[in-house]
Amino acid sequence: MPLSKRWTLTRYLIEERRRYPQASGDLNALILDVSLACKAIARIVAFGVLGDSLTHSPAAQAGAVNVQGEVQKPLDVLSNEIFVRMNEWNGHLAGMASEEMDDPLQIPASYSRGKYLLAFDPLDGSSNIDVNVSVGSIFSVLRAPQEVIDSGRDVTEADFLQPGATQVAAGYALYGPTTMLVLTVGNGVAGFTLNPNLGEFVLTHPNIQVPVDTHEFAINTSNSRFWEPPVKRYVDECLAGKTGPRGRDFNMRWIASMVAEAHRILMRGGVFMYPRDTKDPAKPGRLRLLYEANPIGFVMEQAGGRASTGRQPMLGVKPTALHQRIGLVFGSKHEVERIERYHHEPAARDAGTPLFAARSLFRD
Ligand code: AHG
Ligand code: MN
Ligand code: MN
């Protein structure tokens, strides 16, 4: 299709806004600033070690430890800085929260404050950056509590603790062979490819739908001894293939960049699991609710997929902490429903059932 016939991200947002004649345009402007942050990060990722930004930016001191106890890579820090700088000035935000910031970020007094909250993982999959494998950025837009908007007071952690179902918009950028932005404003999911000549995101994947069935799963099997019985059962049944209860072979993928797995699943179906496990009792899951599970969950559900903790719909969870971790299962609807069913079946909770004893490939 010629470029002149394709919609830009700006046009898509304007056409979406027509559905709300009273809308101010603040959300659109905010999303465009988020997309600009993603374009800036995409350039830095594309230059890799050739780029100056990582060595010369004061923001990019490596080796610090974030609130999660994880060592920050220079690109984690720099990406966070880019998200903050591109969004703090625009007057649309009451505050921001990030994987890389212990506390909510206040909008400086020199700028005006707005009605939205932005939560983000500035660089997802950062362990892959050194090996030139796809990484991305994930973002979630919430409405600030009315009292925050009216008073203009500083934001607190509690202001962000809203269930995922209340998200106004969410999405991710994927820095892969091409840079893409995948977005939902609550009316389906649209995918945009960055045209590097124009520096514009161009609508290439309208109305993305996740196939409801799949024979492809993604899980880090090195954690299998820590899995709960329903997860063991599900994976065992997939691995048993044609000769097992599922009656057909399954395929497995693990990129270790959730954002890239989410994109693969949006494009061709699949199921992703980073379930609650017993590896570290202090961490009920690996991924974070507010800026990983919820935005990806919103995108999945808007594309006809499903996102769950394994026990309940992800978007219904009432968060209890800004950096809360949670078990996450998402992707093709029928498989996610099956995994939820296994969590609810009493038999599935009994690791001693014949199914596990006889077939488990992960038996202790
Ligand atoms: P982040 O780089 O933001 O810390 O997130 C990495 C996450 C996620 O993207 C990925 O699925 C998972 O960590 C990989 O975990 P393992 O190292 O256990 O495979
Ligand atoms: Mn992440
Ligand atoms: Mn990250």
Radius of gyration, Cα only, in angstroms?
21 Å
Main beta sheet: 8 strands, mixed
Ligands in the model, by name, code or SMILES, are: 2,5-anhydro-1,6-di-O-phosphono-D-glucitol, manganese (II) ion
Q: The CATH topology of the largest domain, please?
A: Fructose-1,6-Bisphosphatase, Chain A, domain 1
Count of discrete alpha- or pi-helical segments spanning 4 or more residues: 11
CATH first level of the largest domain: Alpha Beta
What characteristic shape results from the CA principal axes? globular
Unreliable stretches covering 5 or more consecutive residues: 351-364
Question: What's the rounded overall pLDDT mean?
Answer: 93
Q: In percent, how much strand structure appears in the residues?
A: 15-25%
Secondary-structure-derived class? alpha+beta
Report on the structure:
The chain has 364 residues and is of the alpha+beta class. The chain folds into two domains: 3-205, Fructose-1,6-Bisphosphatase, Chain A, domain 1, CATH 3.30.540.10; 216-362, D-Maltodextrin-Binding Protein, domain 2. It is built from eleven helices and 15 strands. Strands 2-1-3-4-5-6-7-8 form an eight-stranded mixed sheet, with helices on both faces. Strand 7 (190-195) and strand 8 (200-205) form a beta hairpin. Helix 2 (26-47) packs antiparallel against helix 4. The chain is globular, with a radius of gyration of 21 Å. The N and C termini lie far apart (55 Å). The model is unreliable at 351-364 (pLDDT under 50). Bound molecules: 2,5-anhydro-1,6-di-O-phosphono-D-glucitol and manganese (II) ion (MN) (2 copies).
